[in-house]
Amino acid sequence: MVELILFGTLGCHLCEEAELIxxxxxxxxxxxxxxxxxxxxQDKYAIRIPVLYHAETGKELCWPFEQVQAQAFxxxxx
Length: 78
Known about the structure:
Layout: E1 2-8, H1 13-22, E2 28-34, H2 39-45, E3 51-54, E4 59-62, H3 67-77
Parallel strand pairs: 1-2
Antiparallel strand pairs: 1-3, 3-4
């Protein structure tokens, strides 16, 4: 199973859209992280959220993305 982080924030409609897209992937575990919790995340991701992040490789998929791009990102991690 692929472990990913979705950086976003509460009330972000784009983040909600990203969550809906990612819900289709059963082979992926998504940890949701609110960038408001730490200044470093706000500094790095404030204008880029939602951002899908793979901690092992440091690879990121920034918005906008659709299901096809998310699948390609996930496939490239395997």
